[in-house]
Each structure stands twice: as structure tokens, then as C-alpha cells.
Amino acid sequence: MTVGTEPVVREVLIAASPETVFPFFTEPDKMTRWLCSEATLDPRPGGICHQTHAGSEEYTDGPYYMRGEYVEVSPPSRVVFTWGFTDPTLNNPPGTSTVEVTLEPENGGTRLRLVHSGLPERGAEDADKGWKQLLEELAIVAAGGESAA
């Protein structure tokens, strides 16, 4: 497996406080509003972060099972978890990549910075597109809007 040379980095400004945004990474009922269809979470270092993702336009054979674990949980400013899929055709096995999320107050809202590192080349391209769409969805639901999904 070839590892991408650059991590995926995405930022978004969310019209909600870090205290409001943070649970969207640690509470199943909130995570399933923007990221996945099912989530089993134990938000503490070493705790599981399991997600079920429906297929997409490109990946129609879903569902896909993401299996990770929390590395760092520092409410309301930072959460880090490993990321990988059980389906070997996705070239990103569990534990091979890491998602780091930093939340900082900005202009009455939150500046969210996401860094996804350790991805294979194809995975990095897909993750860049996917995180862009997903973080736009998160910005809507965390600010109290309705999910478009």
C-alpha cells in the first residue's frame, strides 16, 4: 500500500460554539446526523469509534464499516481517532490513518480544522472530496439546521 505524501486538511467555520460542535464527534445520535448511518462510540483514549457508512455515487457496494479508536479526547477543543475500513478494496485498513479535529472559538462560532493523515494515494483523493461535503453538512446540523441527507 502506498501512503499519500500529504495529509488531507480541511477547515470550516461553524455558527455554533465548540461546546456545541464537539459532541458531533463523540455522541452517536449527533454523529449519525452528518457523518454515518450508525455509530458505536466510546469517546476515551483506547475506546472504539465504529461507524457504518452507506454507499456513495462512487462506492455503490456499501455499507462500509469504519473501525477506529479514539486516541485523544479533550472537550471541547480536540478529538483524535484512527480511521480505516474493513473492506480491503478501499485500501485503508483499520488503524492505518488518523483523523485529528481541532475546534477553536472564532467570531462567536467555531473554526474546525480537520487533518486526515496516513491515507493511501487513492484514499487521500476520496477523503478530500468526502470531508469537504461532510464538513459542510456538519456546519449545517451543528448550527441547528436540518440535514440535507
Summarize the structure in words.
- The chain has 149 residues and is α+β, with helices and mostly antiparallel strands.
- The model has no long low-confidence stretch (mean pLDDT 91).
- Helix content is 20%, strand content 36%.
- It has 3 helices and 7 strands; from the N terminus they run βααββββββα.
- It has a single domain (8-142), classed as Alpha-D-Glucose-1,6-Bisphosphate, Chain A, domain 4 (2-Layer Sandwich).
- Strands 1-7-6-5-4-3-2 form a 7-stranded antiparallel sheet.
Give a brief description.
This protein is α+β, with helices and mostly antiparallel strands and 149 residues long. It has one domain: START domain (Alpha-D-Glucose-1,6-Bisphosphate, Chain A, domain 4), CATH 3.30.530.20. 20% of the residues lie in helices and 36% in strands.
Write the layout of secondary structure elements.
Layout: E1 8-14, H1 18-21, H2 28-31, E2 38-41, E3 48-53, E4 64-74, E5 78-83, E6 97-106, E7 109-117, H3 121-142
Antiparallel strand pairs: 1-7, 2-3, 3-4, 4-5, 5-6, 6-7
